[in-house]
User: Fold these one by one.
Assistant:
Number 1:
Amino acid sequence: MAVRNFRWILREVAFVAVLLHLSQYTVNSVQASVIKTPQEYYRKNTAYSGTQEQSQSVPFNKLHLQADIRQTLDQCSGRNRFDCYPEKTNPPVQDCKARGCCLTRIHGDKGTQSCHYPLDYDGYRVVSLSPLKQVNATVGWNVTMTRTSSSPYPKDIKTLQLLVLYETTYRLRFKIFDPAVQRYEVPVDLHDQDSPTPEELTDFHVIFEKDPFSISIVRKSDAQPLFDSKGMAPLIFADQYIQIGSRLASPLLYGLGEHRSRLALDVKGRQKLVFWNRDQPPEENLNLYGTHPFYLNLEADNRTAHGVFLLNSNAMQVELQPLNNQGPETGSITYRVLGGILDFFVFSGPSSEDVVRQYVSLIGQSFMPPFWSLGFHLCKHGYGNSSEFWKVIQRNREAKMPYDVQWNDLDYSAGNKIWTWDNETYRGLPEIIKDLHDHGQHNVIIVDPGISSSQPKGTYPPFDEGLELGLFVKDASGKPFIGKVWPGDTAFVDFFHHKTFDYWLKFIGLFHGVLPFDGLWIDMNEPSNFINGSVNGCTNSSLDHPPFVPPGIDGGTMYSRTVCPSAQHQQSSHYNLHNLYGWSETIITSQILRVLSRKRPFVLTRSTAFGSGTYAAHWTGDNLSSFPDLAFSISSILNSNIFGMSMVGADICGFRGNAKRELCIRWMQLGAFYPFMRNHAEGYSAPQDPGWFDSEAQDIMRAALHTRYSLLPYIYTRYYISHTTASPAIRPLFFDFPGTELIDAQFLWGSELLVSPVVQEGARTVKAYIPKGACFFDLDTLTLLGVPGGDWYTLDAPLEKINVHVKGGSILPMLPPAVTTTLARQGKMELLVAPDLISMPVTASGQLFWDDGESIDTVRQMQFTLINFTLNETTLTSDVQAKSYSPVTLGKVTVMAVESAPPKVMLNGQKVNFTYDTKSRVLMVSELTWNLLVPFELTW
């Protein structure tokens, strides 16, 4: 951690140094521009029509004339009303007017009034602007602005600085901050931070308005505004309340997690989202486990998109609302942030996938998981004892369930204290873990960040040593902050402390010598607390009671069921670092497992923030055993992939409550296509592992698992693509098919697999949208889905079936299913070929990435095999791109939609055996032993 802290400091120093270096070329012109060149305030006016040459600056006298005319209008008659009193719905008249705002009765609702900003609400005014230059090229802008009036919030910062930097062709950054006082900034080690890019090489124009200040960032290629604060909620920058608004390109908005909602956010319904990580079972309109203030906004054509990321870890509320425009339907977003600075990144796309790749390349691409972690995981809180634990393992083995990882929740520990093992209740646990390893299986245990603090001194080294080293979060008085979690009174490890890495390494290493686990599950790291604040309460300071507490924070206070914001870490206050607490634990834990095992680490974390996907997998929390929770899991997992967390899943069959047989069957079918597949339940619920059910249910669940295990080479390859290109592993349909923007009960694996699960109880059909412009094959029957596409269709979905279709033009690498990934890897590779019957000539393509599945940095060290496969009419060929890992043997090729039985099939000029099914029109070439490191040509 000390190394990371040093890197953070270097990054911040480097950024400031770059800006100082750039500004030395313009420091004199900053002063001159105020009087001599007023046109420099405006890069473009609002009538911008495409190119720099066509645009005209707006003279100052014209702007003043517009302002004078505006004064004659009714300042409260604005059609777009931005909330001036976000603390309270329907505030008293006097409170609203005291803020200088308008109170308007909402039409049709006699008892509700809107307190909103007038059109001429006073704000910041630009007083200087100059370009930042590097080698005579403009690479950014330096703006100073001031305000003379006060906002409704205390400690206004009257002078602000805005720095705009063209970072890459498709990414622009702008920061608004206090130039006189160093405020907290997020200590995240950003990636892809190269030298600035000259403006003319980017896809951005920047437009400034002087009074009141606004900034508009426009995509050059089509004049589409990507961030536009003009006429939106006014800029406010007080010590503990920062506000800015932007116009959206359309109401089709995605992201802004972690929240339970439909995939497309509710702009029309004025949805409000709170970012303050909390141990909260997933429910709508509540703050949940993670903070990801990034959104993707589709534009009016539903094809192009852009993205915006606010790099800020403080508590915030985001409000979405429609705009009453004469033209195309749009909306707005208003940020209300409780601290730090405004540090925005704008991504120009233009495709949805481009936007995600541009964002994830900045925060860090998803980690490459160990191959075994792609198998089926099984867990329950409260197995009770080692005997019951062993029974679960045995019955699922006896049922021949594909099954790779058995987990232990906290009940394995002594008194719920981490780094302990209850060797009475869980007698023989080390031997059980050894048996798992002997069967090619793995074990993951849970670890919480809370350290029991109430036992006698000298009896619990994790607390004694942490206390001696000063490694616990401290209260406002400087003493260890004590809350209550599972073991009772609890101190919280400060993962931002430079000595914590060695401390955490020591106890992970010691405990691994007792229980040789294969991965760590870090839970309760929001951080969760069973009381509000500490055992001694919280302070009366503005950190614990800020002037604005976002409505929607569950519990109503900043310290509800968590640590007091006034608590202190080595780097800053918990007020600033709360949303990064789980993120900080994730990084240390992943790095330590990497050091200890000398293998690819596997960490699962509940609390996340931007960049968490670089280090760990994530699950969507303590869901309910219900069909609505099953359905919501899809949008949650799609959102996580948009946030760069490719390996994500939901607790299959649900964590809370008793899962009915039908629900568990449907959820196992859907879960077979989660990136991370784990069945998990609380201690009070009935058993829900596959081996517990009747034989018919077992057969259905086993078939779903067989499908997943057969697709593991394809899934693994998609992870490689995600890891190397920042592309999401799974994605919404609208990424590939316009007209599907509101669909969130179906999803795509890459561009090859369309998954259409049953999400309603009792359903034996599924209404699925089949996109136009592609053909699809049923993965079970290998037959063509005979519909024209571009519409909704009713597909048969008996209890034993989940509808999964392969898009024509795809080649999927596969393996014969086995009961573990260890055994599966011993099988011969297979290829499933789905021709694109729409194109001429008939084509298909695919890729296989293969390595040993566990070594560190195989991609960076080029210790892998990468093969491209191409179909052209009746010829299938391979192109070996890399061949540093072997053996990789091809045993079978299956080709769909072959019109008739061929007279012969040739592999590199030699006849090979084949079969042809006249009903399904499937050609199958089997009994092969071809070394895939040697290119081949298969013809028929």
Note: The chain has a mean pLDDT of 91.
Number 2:
Amino acid sequence: MRYHLLALFISQLTWLVPHAQEKQSPLTWQDIPNWKYIRTNDATPSPDGKWLAYVSGPTQGDLTLTVKNTGNNRQYQYAIGGQITPIRFNEHSSFIAFYQSPDHKTIKANQKSKKPIRKKLHLVSLKDTASTVFNNVQKFDFSNEQGGWIGLRFEPIVPAQKNDTTGRGSDLLLYNLANKQQFNIGSVHDYAFNKNGTLLAYTVDAAGQNGNGVFLLNLTNGLTTLLQNDAATFSKLNWNKEGTAFSLLKSKKDKAYTTPIYTLIGVKNVLATNPEVYSYSGLDEQQITAGYGISENTAPYWSKDLSRIFFGIAKLEKTKAEREKAQDAKVDSLVQKTANLTDSVQARQDSTNVKTANASQKTGVNKKDLEKPDMTIWNWQDKRLQSSQRTQLERDKKFNIMSLWEIGNNKFVSLADSNLKSISLAPNQKIGYGLDFSPYEFTSSLDGQRFADVYLVDIASGTRKLAIEKLYLNASFSSSFSPKSSHILYYSNGDYYVLDVHTLAKTNITKLIPSTFIDKNEDHNVSKPATGTYGWTQDGRFVILKDNYDLWKVAYDGKSHIQLTDDWKDRKLLTTSYNNTYPDDDEIDLAKDQYFTVIDENTKQTGIALLPAKSNKIQVLGLEDAYVSPINKVKHAAAYFFTKQSPTVSPELYMSNDKMLKTPIKLIADSAKQLLSAGSKLISYVSDHGDTLQAVLYLPADYVEGKAYPTITYIYERLTNNKNSYSLPAYPGGGFNRAMYTSNGYAVLMPDIKYKLNDPGMSAVACVVPAVKAAVATGIVDEKNVAIHGHSWGGYQTSFLITQTNIFKAAVAGAPLTNMISMYSLIYWNSGSTNQSIFESSQGRLTTGYWDNWDAYARNSPIFHIKNVQTPLIIMHNDKDGAVDYTQGIEYFNGLRRLNKPVVMLTYNGENHGLAKEVNQKDYAVRMMEYFDHYLKGKEAPDWWSKGIDFMALPKHLEDRAF
């Protein structure tokens, strides 16, 4: 007899020894607003690595910005009010700028009364910490590479009454960092420095449109050049990467259209006394497709050779008056034609017939009869459901067709259309590729299996040629042009290919590699899913591919390959990300040191790996029982920043001046004021399907060896890669916060789930139940006091598991689907599409519709096993849920209620799939913990559970206004 249920082994333990610490009071939900922590994700080093700035403070309250010298740890602190601020250093690392907002209480009051939140800007000299403060600043920017200026645009003065000619501009202050001279420019709406910071382009948008235009200021000599004046609005100002040319849009109102009409403006030869200015009309049907105009939804940009400008065009919508005028003209024409026909017929009949008073009475045609009813027609042949079209209406309105204007010959070229909706340009911008979904769009909307034809597009002419037919996109579409624009990398049917854009020859570059590039962990209904690629090398000679464990440098012609990793498959080591430490590089430059984050699949230890410059062998620099973030290298120094965290230690930030990351300096230490968890155990177990899987068991803060604890089992899909993550106390959108439970004496179990097609629910049972039993076998989990919770897909699995097992004492299912048959053809209202594709190619993991797979749908639907439920259950399902239809929760609740099973359903009116309103987040979190405390800790049952309560009454915590 095969023995599935005992743990095979328990890996190393990441924890502190709580015995040595003073006993701490568990966190309460009322403690969360005052929980202080450091926002390490937003910590910003200076370009020379000598300074670090970060924000700290409570979850809800007033914050502090700290500026620290990384060499001597000298630091300066600034009160910045109740909002986090962007942090910016100038290029030379001599100044830092940041906002100071009003205090937290004022911000809340202003938000409630819809008053503006005015901010101050602090400009601090790092040489002597001298600070200059500016009031009512809306936007700020340093002048890029030369770094000699900062531009500050102030909040505009809002007039009592707004109209079409109300100016949108406000004062722009240019402040010289060296001599503190200040220059004010009025009514500026948009501005941008070029790359080297010597030029400032800006637009003026004044009251009454007086003096509106686009200007260029030379910051080296103070000369301002007027490029164009017009009673119009100028926007979307956009410099090219080199800072040698820029483009923008100009718009004017037109009575015939609902939106302004846009004109394209391009400026180049910017250092000349008279820069070259080009304009292209937005309403020229001789050049742009009839009924289209220049789109406002994309910023135009110059080609690299400055011969053309790329921009978007979109359909122009006539005003209601114009549409009615056009409709009236059509009706009048129809009436007249019908009247003429009737008169002709009557003329041949009895001459005594009396002619009717008007033509419309003769024909029965009336303008009102032609008005459209308020209704929707759903047709089985529609490529997109009507609900999808309606939901995506705003997106469709903003859709624009990529086009270009050839300046030399004044030629317009449309590169895309309604089928080929977007074009990815090659680096040389002479060719691009686009995906045509239209031949497969209908079937894709049904089963979710996505295909597309790949076309190459000649940029000069707009002509296309089919390059790849029916490419399967569910497996992967990480295609990309080579740096020399001569080839395209793509994936198909288990291998990577390179397409020659000139000959259309396709080369399988992985067929000679003794490995597979099919993802072993992907268990959706997808054929041969790809493992992934990190893209091209800078010289265009190689691509960097990964199999399930190892990295490969593969020649673009497939004739050679080099394994960069040292048989990581044997060690179960794999990369999780490429660290982009050179943001200015478009591709991976192997002449420079390159970094990757790695994880040990057996232990969940993480670390950093280095591929040294001009080397073909990756070195693992270290693995530890922590989550190590990707490396951030500063621009002008060999200074490397990264964070580490664990279940017992909040994120800490380190810096190393050594590329091997030896002896790093800790710049930000653990900010947690109390221990929230004693660590985590990694448990290995065998599922009922025979697969060896893992689960993470997070220990309660007061853990004592040998004692068993009440445990919450939290499920979704695969969760164990987060073993070493820190949980920050917070009000959760899904109700559950790990830190709050471990702080309050609970263990938390998070198992991995591996799925078999056509058995998603049964797969959850086969994995979760053995995981719980293996966790019980450790002695840490109290077998008699285990609960389960999940949200969305986890909510479905929770609602299903309690129909198959009674090992859980209580359960909470958030937004669960409960009837796969009825859910299959309902609408995913957030997108407007049907759920059918989700079932057949995504999370549902079913292979057909229920009519051909009835047993699988019924077997995995909680509602069909509802009579088996013995576990008390809370369902949280909101009436505006756009992901899992509200009726799913209602159906399960009413079924359990009819069977007199203990169940409560919580509905937060107006909320979507998760909870967005803080008051609702608090309410759900409190109710969930009260419920689990009752069943797992023996505390008194809350009235809303045991007796029922008035509609939307708050639990006692909220009634006491403790929040």
Note: Confidence is low (pLDDT under 50) at residues 1-21, 350-363, 957-963.
Number 3:
Amino acid sequence: MNKPLDPATIGQPEPPKEPRRHQRTATGYLPEKTEDGKEVWPRGQESVWKSGLRAVETEETSITKSIVHHVQTTIARQAYNIDEEGAYRAIAYSVRDNLIVNWNDTQMLYTRKAPKRAYYLSLEFLMGRTLDNALLNLGLKEDYQKAARKLGFEDFEELVESERDAALGNGGLGRLAACYIDSGATCELPLWGYGLRYHYGMFWQQISTDGSQVEAPDPWLNHANPWEVHRPDVSYLVRFYGHAERIGDSKAIWSGGQEVMAVAYDVPIPGSYTRNTNNLRLWDAKPKRGFDLNSFNAGDYEKAVESSNSAEALTRVLYPNDNHMVGKELRLKQQYFWTAASLADITRRFKQLGEPFSKFHEYVAIQLNDTHPTIAVPELMRIFVDEEDIPWDQAWEITQKVFGYTNHTVLPEALEKWPVPLFQHLLPRHLQIIFDLNHSFLQAVEKKWPNDRDRLTRMSLIQEGFPQYIRMAYLAVIGSHKVNGVAELHSELVRTTIMKDFVDFYGPSKFGNVTNGITPRRWLDQCNPGLSSLITETLGGDKTKWLKDLSKLEGLLSHIDDPAFQKKWADVKLQNKQRFAQFIEQTMGVKLNTSALFDVQVKRLHEYKRQSLNILGVIHRYLTIKSLNAEERAKVVPRVVLFGGKAAPGYYMAKLVIRLINNVAKVINADPDLQGILTVLFVPDYSVSVAELLIPASDISEHISTAGTEASGTSNMKFCFEDLRYNHQYHPTSLEERSPALAVVCKVIAEGRFGDGSIYEPFLNTIRTGDYYLVSDDFDSYLEAQKMVDTAYQDKVSWVKKSITTTAKMGKFSSDRAIMNYAEEYWNIEPVKLN
């Protein structure tokens, strides 16, 4: 099971790891001392390390020279005290040097050619680890492995794995953004990303002794981040609060309030097998004046640093809880801070072209990733009207041509809304602009449908009530020239449900679809090198061809009946399972049966994602196996059921499901009758780097969300590079015909088989009464689907063929295809290749 957590450590930084039995250094280990005090360096490396760069210049490669240079100068260390962390940093800085050269050349190319640029605004970028991805994209991994060995670090993968995840996102939205900027560089598009530099990323998830999730801070910036470039020369003042005084019909002067400095940190984003290197610019918040000396001298020490603390809190934490007014205010401040700084930067870059603002949309395209950056619409209007003296109607025409909006949900309760009083307090000028836009828009609606008061109420940017609310999705729609969903079915639902009135008003041409995709570099080549090598060998020996055109994977189908190819494919899967099993044994102390079917569900914990349906099905499987005799148990298809994902800190029901999963696992894994037949694990602190181990080891991915609640399911795309994917379809049954099997499972939980049953009563009641997420309706058919999986897994040849077919048919779901779709149909930008 998960290793018990000492309550005294909850919320504290992770303790340092125990030292190795021998202290590792860049030469392998500390130099030995002879009796007369002389140092003896292992493997004859004294000339490399002790003599420093002079020896390297004549004896080693330029890469080795670069690493040694960064050891001695950038991190100011010597060979005898270089540990794993120091070696990682030196290698990372060396790799960054390559990125920076390409980055500078790419930006110079854009400056010289002045193409139209696209900017991707996302409040989350779930980047994961950078070193391995950068080396693969640069084509330098093998060279750096050799250099590391020359310096005594035999296990290069161990260095790679020492990197902290940059967890600047919660899940699919942030990971999608990371895939898109990777693909933008790979496709040689002039595309930048803009986000926030959170000091604390997605929380560190721990599991306590009773199976509950406990959140601890994730101070991922505690160590220097080699992958960012601090740009103190790029900074902008962002205003909050104050008052807005109108001048004439459309202009206003916004003054007073609080001013916060937005300072840029750049992260170079390399393309794959190209020198093109784009940029992810993250904003950090700093006070306009860091220290109030008068307050300090007067003895008021708290007031002396108050403004500093208030400003820096803006980028302290990813997505604070928004279940109280303070949290809501901070989140809205984050959204405006980031979009205002980004638009100031984009506008400054445009002005350098010397073109009139009437051509702004000919050089700038901005994509709103969900509703979080929607405040950019009135902010660009404020810049145009208040600062650049552009007439209102012309400013609005340009604004609409600049923005595109990607919708990620059709759930009305998930569409972002902000209370008008909060907006009035925090962003008074933007509230004026939104009300003015709404007035003009409703006049146009009234003209098209006279006297249709219901329609006006439905389409208004302002939801009436006490208080009034601003509908940010509607603002994004009217402020954009193009609106898209992220899968064919989802985009159709957008058009026919939540945006139907707007489709009627604007016409269907404004509403399109861009099916999401994932990058095959990270999710196949990087995390599954065995499969990548096999595909390359099978398709002709040049992986760059299929990695940059995933449709070429269909060439695998011509080998699907070759027994030798089938065996190689199955061997890769087994090796991936063994690798993941080793990770689990090292981190959780649990041994996995690698011949078992690995059944995986990893995503944010949410009732609509129905991890509950999965664990209830596991309990049913457990009860069924327990009822069998020894001979019958021997015929059961063995399973390892793996859960992973984090619940929002304030989401009680999701956290209760995590607790149930862990306590079910505790019982099942300790039962001698189930050893090797059924193992259940909740993998704590699921992250990109954990996914890179788990996904290649999976046999099936459970994608069992309530029908109509998931936009595209990019997590499943990653699994489809691997094996069988099944989607459970909803077949409704009446509440009077509830599942007898589920009733037994709920009874067993309530009776205390997995700990105090009363703890789970709130969860069980969600199924007994109402069952909003249709667990009871789908339970029996879910069990039937699981039986089909068991049957299919027993036919090993057929299973391997299914796996090959699934991977071969994944070409459409490359983020390269998706980003080119945006470039050609939404942004009107073209590739600009760096020679």
Note: The radius of gyration is 28 Å.
